[in-house]
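Notes, Module 5: Reading structure tokens.

Key idea: the token line is not a picture. It is a compressed description, and you learn to read it the same way you learned to read a sequence, by spotting repeated patterns. We will look at two proteins. The first is printed below with its tokens.
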Amino acid sequence: MPAAKQHILIVEDRADVRLSLRFLLNNHGYEVFEAEGPAVASELLHTHRIDLILLDMNFEFDTTSGEEGLAFLRTQQKTSSPPILAMTAWSSVSLAVEAMQLGAKDFFAKPWDNHAVVMMVKKYLALAQIDHQKAISQQHEPAPLGKSDTSLDNNTKSILWHSPRMQKLKAQLERVAKTDATIFLRGENGTGKSCIAEYVHAHSERTGEFVSVNMGAIPESLFESELFGHKKGAFTDAKQDRAGRFELANNGTLFLDEVATMGANQQAKLLRVLESKQFERVGDTLTQQASCRIIAASNADFEAMLESGEFRTDLYFRLNTIELTIPPLRARSEDILVLAEHFIELHARQYQLPPLPLSKLAKNALLDYAWPGNVRELSHMMARAVLMAEGDCIEEQDLEFKVLNNSSKNASLRGDIPLMTLEDAEKKLLKMALAQTQNNVEQAGELLGISKSAIYRRLEKFGMSTK
């Protein structure tokens, strides 16, 4: 089946300009909608799926202020608007800046270069697709029945074991993979728990499928049907027999992600199957054997959940024969650049672009960042960088870092800092963090939201010592 065409909306008062852009974009396989002003554009956005907007900034013959386009951008700021590329015959730096401050992704002037416009359109459609996939992955949607969860970069090849902590984890995984022991993986979001579960399955002697299920994404009313399957007619929407996850993972591995999100009833139903190693499809009397290896995962504070009774102790111990913790990316800085280069290669192939090297400044920026989203965030960042880079390497400005809110950590560091150079401000904050932590480099890094190695680089840069 051919891929669905992407839809582009041209908002432009001049019919000849709309026609030129329509021909250009149609020739590159896009479906084009036209609006001669913001009112028609708003209506089309409500009635059609629009993937990208080309927005003229002036809709009146005798004005060059761009106010009409800016007003439309302000309106779109309040909605989940598709990416907008601004255009005007009266191009100016100030108008471009204002348009982009209001949400426009990029800016080009009329008359335009056809190739440049098409490349810009391709870039921002691809970036929008990445953002869409990222949003879906953050909603923790379950993988389809019978499919393994490959959201974190397709397979176990993305696990690159370079840091001492990951080398140690690898040795542990390979020891337990040959057994049938239940494994409990703990780690922050994005650390690669699903990939590591797949790694265990790939190195085990089980011949069945690796089947993944996100426990937090299953409504309580469908819990038994999803895990154990159902017979045709068992309930209103049961149009045919359906195998559940336990059945599909027969002689394989069943990965239960986000197990901490289960309610009390769901916990009891899962515990019964783990204890008896038997289950029945909903609406069926035939008892089946649960012959699969269980790997569970969570990023929750289980000690607190067990103490409060929110999670059953007996189920926890059933799931936790062997507990392994996956370190966050900021705690294994040796892996950051290796993973970054791997993701650049991966996404460059995906978008049919050359794999560009990272500049020295870009590498330092990656090493200095705290990575709250871990490996998943690094993958998404490299995907954007592959598309955004315009030179012969990926520069620091091609990287999109989150603005971290460390208010709970560094509240005592805050204060009125007089105007000074960025270097002086950085040096002052470093001194304050070290003073507050009695020169503990690791704790100072946590306060400032950067890695331990980044602290040492700054100490060397400023000629400072912790002694």
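Here is the second protein, with the sequence above and the tokens below, as before.
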Amino acid sequence: MSGACSHAPYRRRPALLLLLCVLLAVPAFSVGADDPAAKAAELAALRERMQTLQNRLRHNQDKKSRAEQKLREVETKISTASRELLRIEHRLENSTRQLADLQTRQQEQTRALRQQRRQIAREARASYAMGRQQQVKLLLNQEQPAAVGRALTYFGYLSRARMARVDSIHTALAELQATTASIQDTNRELMELRSRQLLASRRLQEKKQQREQVVAKIGRELESQSDELHRLRQDEKRLQKLLASLRELLADIPLDASHHQPFRTLKGKLHWPAPGRLTSRFGSRRGNSGLTWQGVTITAPEGTRVRAIAQGRVAFADWMRGFGLLLIVDHGDGYMSLYGHNQALYKEVGEWVDTGEMVATLGASGGQNRPGLYFELRHQGRPINPVRWCSGRPASLS
């Protein structure tokens, strides 16, 4: 994992302790409280303190090259463009379904209108066939007075039925016109959305081209193997310090165990966060660096959906050197899951996620040459083998 970073370690241990003292100065809340207002205040305080930590990390980063700064900037813009494109595509899908429903309704209304017109035409012909003279004859029948009453009732019924059908036709015509107008509006919306989709796709491609240029420049800066080894070690140290800071911060407001299954009971039952192929395995050597992988890499097409492996809350969601767009979920009892090199993040710090919920899309952020999800599991800050916790293989997922 190579790349640039906006989240560097604290320069001195005293500085870290001072920051945590400030962050943890907020009074602790009762986690088991049933008061909704207290829980809302608890969540707001947690988000604020996590965001403060995230901002402090960003502003106290190590000195880095302009290329690394540019990489963070470009990949963050790619994330924004990807989210916007996905939102447009969802709206496009909804509008397309709405258009299909409207067209189906239009066809049904047209058929119903035809039937009503045919019915009133049959009644008109029947009335004509009976003739006005027959009606007058019935009304003037002096020999059968009861027949006159029945005739009046019958003619009144026919008249009212005919008027009701005329009113029904008028209503059907109005509904058909309203549906037609809705179809026209939806068609205009679809045209606008397709135009916005094309523009968003172009912007995304432009940002990706900029990223390729920046990655190539960083590659030229890391010409020697010793430079790359130094960077990898710095990236690992930076992640370890970040996780240590998050553990101390989250310990003040632990997860409510009554509302979720303890993570330790899920060993061997978890689903992989994304379908794909394992291209780096836990504990294997990282090329010629002498270092070992602390997690696994799942190679899959760019844009593949990344899902949370279990319920938890987002502890970190930002760009970090060596890991690109990184999302960390706290599952309680010291367990965390890490999702790196994403194309876009769809959750923010402090948000709760459910098992299987989409949290990101897979990418190559952090300066990677090909798309892939870097996935780690940690307990009390120590890496644990995801293969022992997840069932099956990533490739078996659809």
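Summary for the second protein:
- Residues 106 and 180 are 7 Å apart (CA to CA).
- The helical segments are 13-23, 36-59, 66-139, 145-221, 225-250, 386-389.
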